Amino acid sequence: MPRSRDGKHTFCVYGSSSVNTPQPYLDVARKLGNLLADGGHTCVNGAGRAGCMGALNDGVTERCGRVRGVIHEMWIVDASEHPQVKDLRVVGGQGLQERKRMLMEGADCIVALPGGLGTWDELWEMVCLKGIGLCDVPICVLDVEDFYAGFKVQTKRAQADRLLYADMDKLLHFESDPAKAIEWCVSQLGAPGRDHKPNRRLERTTSGVNPPTTTSWSNSDRFMWACSVIACSGALTLAMTALRR
C-alpha cells in the first residue's frame, strides 16, 4: 500500500551531474521536478547543481516544492551542491554506500534520468536488491531519446539466455515522458501484494547477519540489512585473506 494516505509520495531520483549533459535531458529533468512539486511529492536526489540533478532541483525549487539532497562530503569542498536545496544531508565514509542508503531512506519509488556510471551504479544496485526480495519499490527509467535503449537490449538478452532469476518487466519499467513515469510509480504503490515479506531464503546468510525480526519491513530496513550483509561479507573476506598470509 502507499506509504502516504494523502497521495503524496517520496521519489528518489537518480541522474547525471555532468555540466555537459545534453539539453533534451535537462529539459525532461526540469519538467520532472516541476511535476513532482506540483503534485506535492518530495524529491530526494544527490543535491547536484549541474546536469540532470541540477535541472531537476531547479524544477522542484522554482515551484516551491520539497527537495532533500544527500551529498558526500568530498563534493561539498567543490561547491557542487545546488544552492536552493535547503534540506541538505552531508555524509562521509570512504565509499558511497552511506550516501546511497540515505538516498533511499523513506523513499516510496525510484526514477532514473539519463546519467553516467554513478547513476547506473545506483540504479542497478536497487534493481538487484529488488530482484532478490530486499526491496519492493517501483523503479522507473526515463528513457529520453532512447538513452537507455542499450539497457533494454542487454536485459532482454540476459532474459533470453535464462541468466536472470526474475522477470525484468517486474523489476524495471521504462517511460519516455516524466508525467507518465510519475503516474506509473503512483499506480504501482497502490498495487495489491506490494507489502510482501522478504524472501525466506534470505533469512540466514553466510555472513551471520540476520534480517530484522519485525513483522513488517520498511524499504530502508531492507536496504540497511543488505548493506550490513555486504559489509560483513567484505570484513570476513579480509580476515580470511590475512589468516592465509
UniProtKB/TrEMBL annotation:
Gene3D superfamilies: 3.40.50.450. Residues 194-215 are annotated as: Disordered. GO terms for cellular component: cytosol. It comes from Ectocarpus siliculosus (Brown alga). The lineage of its organism: Eukaryota, Sar, Stramenopiles, Ochrophyta, PX clade. One of its GO terms (molecular function) is hydrolase activity, hydrolyzing N-glycosyl compounds. InterPro entries: LOG (IPR005269), LOG_fam (IPR031100). This is Decarboxylase family protein, lysine decarboxylase. GO terms for biological process: cytokinin biosynthetic process. Residues 194-204 have a biased composition (Basic and acidic residues). Residues 205-215 have a biased composition (Polar residues).
